Amino acid sequence: MVAIPYLIVVYDISEGRVNKVRKKLKKYLSWVQNSVFEGEITEGKLKKCKNELLKIINKDNDSIYFYSLENKLNYKKTIIGIEKDMTGNIL
Amino acid sequence: MVAIPYLIVVYDISEGRVNKVRKKLKKYLSWVQNSVFEGEITEGKLKKCKNELLKIINKDNDSIYFYSLENKLNYKKTIIGIEKDMTGNIL
Which of A81, B30, B33, B60 has its CA 20 to 30 A from that of B8? Predict the structure, then answer.
C-alpha cells in the first residue's frame, strides 16, 4: 500500500485574489485556519491543484508554501487557543 | 544522535496581540511568511515557548497550530509565487 502524502498549505495572497485561491484549495483540501489548508492528496492531484493556482495568483506578489509530509502519521499537531472552525465559511 | 523536531507554526491572532506573538516566536524560530514560523526546536524549548505564548493570547479568540515533524528530513517544501523575506521586518 502506498501512503498518500499529507499536505499543509499556507498562503499570503492579496485581498483581491484570496477568495479565489481559497475556493480552489477547498476543492482539494480542508480549510483549518484563516490562511491554512491541510489534507491527504495524491501527487497527481497536487500537481493539478498547483497548476490551477498558478493561473490565479500574481507570481511576483503572492506566496503559497506547500509542506508535503510522507503521510499523516508523520507529524503531531497541537493547538493552543481555539481550533478554528472554517467549515461554515462561504466563499 | 537524537533528531531535533522540526516545527511549523501557523497562527490567527487579533491585531492587538499579533506583534507580541510574533516577537515571542521569533525568539525560537524563523519567520517565513506573514502568519508562519518554522525551525528546529527541542521539546524543552517548545514547551517553554508554548507557556510564554499562553500568557499573551486570548484563549477564546486566538489560534496557534503547531505541526511537529520528527525531523527536517521528514517533509518536502515547495513554493509557488514568491518566497517571503520576513527577516528585515521590525516588530
Answer: B60
